[in-house]
Amino acid sequence: MDSAEFIHRLHFAFTVTYHYLFPQLTMGLAPLIVVLKSLALWKKDQRYDDAARFWAKIFGISFVFGVVTGIPMEFQFGTNWSHFSKYAGGVIGQTLAMEGTFAFFLESAFLGLFLYGEKRLSKIAHWWSAVAVFVGSWLSGYFIVATDAWMQHPVAYARTADGAVTLTSFWGLVLNPWALWQYAHNMTGAGVTGAFVMMAVGAFYLLSKQHVEQAKVFLKVGVASALIFVIPLIGPTGDGQGRNLAEHQPVTLAAMEALFESRQGAPLVIIGQPDVEKKKIDNPIVVPRILSYLAYRDWSARMSGLDAFPQSEWPDNIPLLYFSYHIMVGLGTIFMAVGVIAALLLWRKRLFESRWMLWILMLSFPLPFIANTAGWMTAEIGRQPYLVYGLLRTANGYSKSVSAGNGWFTLLGFLGMYTLLSILFLFLMRREIEHGPGAVGATLQAGVK
Amino acid sequence: MPTLWFCIISVMLTCYVILDGFDIGAGAIHLLAARTDHERKQVIRAIGPVWDGNEVWLLATGGVLYFVFPQLYASSFSGFYLPLMMVLWLLMLRAIGIEFRAHIEQDVWKTFFDGIFALASVLLAIFYGAALGNVVRGVPLGQDHYFFLPLFTNWRVGPQPGILDWYTVLSGVLALVALASHGAHYVALKTESELNQRARRIAAMLWPAQLALTLFSLVATLSIRPELLANYRAVPVGFIIPLAVFGSIVAMFIFSRKGNDLGAFLASSLYLAFMLVGAVFALYPVILPAVDPRYNLTIQNSVTADYALGIGLRWFSLGIVLALAYFVFIYRMFRGKVKLDERGEHGY
Q1: What is the ipTM of this complex?
Q2: What Å distances lie between residue A324 and A183, A309, B337, CA to CA?
Q3: How many residue pairs from chains A and B have C-beta atoms closer than 8 A?
């Protein structure tokens, strides 16, 4: 608890976890706003324009929070992880700088146009600005995922004389095969967040009998997108990620499943608490052979357990990794069930009257935030004890010149600041949701800012 | 190639200072300039649509700096750990102030968040100035290229400096005055009637202080780092830069007197730009001077490999052309239909 390494890890983990609550919402809502704008153009129906305007305001607020909490992320590469930056900056500096150059300017320029320009733009031009915001936010996601993917699976680099790494192939870095799967998985995850939030607000309006027409639009678009995003979330993208792990980080996969001993036909643990000291799982409930199948498409394939690897290569927090992974997978399964049931009810035209389902939809919105967070924890804790897998250990990456005391000082500062930000965000959200999607002119004037 | 990137980063940083500078400055003076709730709302509206876009320049500049000079990024960010973290908190406090202020109904809380917004803006301007002062003064870099600065030590410019000493505090105060006047010109430009008059009066009052501090800081800089004149002596054309600084500050005065708010704002932007250009011209090729000059970080010993720089130049050119295209597109969209003062959409 008192080591500088620990505090720098906690510092980054806390700030990035908090930060990512906002981008997952904006990246998830962006395509839905495009869908709403497209429906408005196609069906020439004012309701869709009102809906898009409402969600644009939610988007705008979340975007501001994403920027404000995102600047610390970029800074921390230098402030808290200077040795890592010196080591890897020659490679991942590319993707981080591209994010600024290609994605942020696009996103922020067109967001202003989209939020404030509706009355002055033609309908087509306003639609295009929504598309530009969508492209900007998804590009931004790609560059960040490509950065992380390089840390998970370093490619396209060479060592330099002073012990750092340097880029050897631009396209090798940008098209890292790890990045492609991870991106697809991450973006479908963000899409689920956007869809569940939209459904939840729709369900809330229907249950409280306000903005009923808008609520139905939210639910229709939300349910359809939830289904569209949740299916590829599980297969092929989640599955693809798992097989990448089996190939390149087998020790991580063993730790995620708390598979202490190598065996053929390895089971999948559904419930149980790993006991790392005794190398067993308490009160396990397992499904036989599934793990071997998922990893190698062979029911009796031999899976390497943790015993196959030296302990110095094990992720350093196996229980947390195990739970993060299981929470993610468990919630993913629940999303699938919720999405399918809601879609069936919608198809049978019974969703709007099924109060029990509306209650479920309204209360489910925190779950994708938890699942996305757990997913990233799985990726990042699973990468330990490395910062750049196989190349640079976490213990060699933090800022040696910044003491643990200074780390605690600023972490506590961030805790306080983010408490204030949370209060502000909830306050603004409550205000927008209470205001609702009606009254066209007035809400536009009130604006986001 | 490293020199080209050095110039690109300097230009990006200058854009950031000019753009975020006016909204920080507007925050710093808004308690003085705007008296009524209505007037304060106008100030917030003048910067509301642009302030977070302006901060995007900070992110973009940081990203490019990271990729071109990883060693500089690693050394300076970890060494300036404390002030950078405080800058982050102040940026957040400003956001909190602006957003709450715009949406909360009770007057008591409006007053409170106006205060938060103003205080965070004032401190941010001082911190940015002090940061620049630290870079000009030099830091105790060791052989390993790392250092760590406490907030203050004995307030002297010596071998064990802190973030704050008399010189960097002077830079901070200069930055506060310069950005406050920049912000005052912006508010004057974007508003009408009484608020406009008051913003102009504030700018006029700040002007003598800005002139005096600029001269004083020039003298102070040359007294603690006389070697900064080396580049100017080697390339005497460089002396145009300090002349341009004084030219723009005089232009500010003339435009202010004539009531030409746009002219005064542009002159103020030029002043900030030339101040920064003067500093980077003096430093080049050093990007972070050390107390012991053997350990200076220069563009040569901090730069990344040639391949990365070359490929970076290609995508960066594309990216900047695209970014310019967005702005041209946005200007065309709004051309002729919107008065500049309406909601401040005239770009980021």
Answers
A1: 0.85
A2: 19, 22, 53
A3: 234
